[in-house]
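We treat protein structure as text, and this decision shapes the records that our systems exchange. The tokens are whole numbers drawn from a learned vocabulary of local backbone shapes. Below, we set out a record of this kind in full and without editing:
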Amino acid sequence: MTSQNDKYMQMALELARQGIGAVEPNPAVGCVIVKGGEVIARGWHKKFGEPHAEINALEDCTDAAGATMYVNLEPCCHEGKTGPCTDAIIKAGLAKVVIAMVDPSNHAGGKGIEQLRKAGIEVELGICETEAKLLNAPFIKFAVTGKSWVILKWAQSIDGKMAWTGQADGRRWISGEQSREDAHNLRRRVQGILVGIGTVLADDPLLIARPSKGEVVTRIVLDSRLRIPLDSKLLATAGEMPVLILTNQGASEAEPQKCKQITEKGAEIVTYPEVEGRSNLEFVLDELSKRGIGQLLVEGGANVIDSFIEEGIFDEICVYIAQKKLGDEGCVGISDAMAELAKAVGLQYVDIKRFGKDLRISGFSKRGIGAILAAGG
């Protein structure tokens, strides 16, 4: 039987999910205040830079004195873009705070819990802890390791093709409209979107979420031979939103004039040491992590995604499978490794949802989730 604590924490988690895609790189947090056995207030962190869940919940009620607060992450006790939540909780006179998990960030790490207890507020910790960690896994990984959370995403037909052959009949997408809308929601979560130069040459993408809600995302291209067209949409918009071109040292030395033209358009070039004729993905991930990219979305194409799989550099996958066979009308087949992941082989906490006629399969890698569940206390 579900306890009252579990019931109210589940409410807080559900509220927290409403902030996904708007609060990043902050964690998604929801809050419920209960008094006399009734929920008297609800709140969640709605947008990065705006009040936290606890503040919104406190503003949702007139008298929280003696009440119990349920929140899926330790309340902050530091001054950031907003004031400390712990100060507001103490001032409101709450009797108890039930917390799902400790915030593993350097500025937190139990300090908020300690402050609440010193103020005479009872604190209970660990209710729905696993669900809370899964909800904010990317935030936890970056806080604990300083490394980006890597999401591999692609769309495919049921027979494993990623694109139509040619555009003669105007066909462009394999997945349906609802799947594409969900994929744009995924883009809103991340701080970086990465593709290979093959995708740029084939599709000339912008790599932004539509409709835009003011997100700032770094668009990243793996371009070992510096083949990006100077008239590409990415370079045309580099002054509006960051573009990062990752190329090997030899290419940049051989193309000084093109490097100058690229940087004049507002893009940045970073060179990496080549490893046995392929991109140095560990270097790439270190570079992006240093730039504060807490979540990185790798959108392909197939060779790039396969490289991340082969090297084990991914934490989460998101695959949209259109219930159609392309046969000879399709091209760019997925790799054996991608096919295994599309069957959810080796994934944990797998989730399957339907979007129109498409299926979305998502899940965490063992590498991605093991350290997350062990984090905190």
Q: What stands out?
A: The chain has a mean pLDDT of 91.
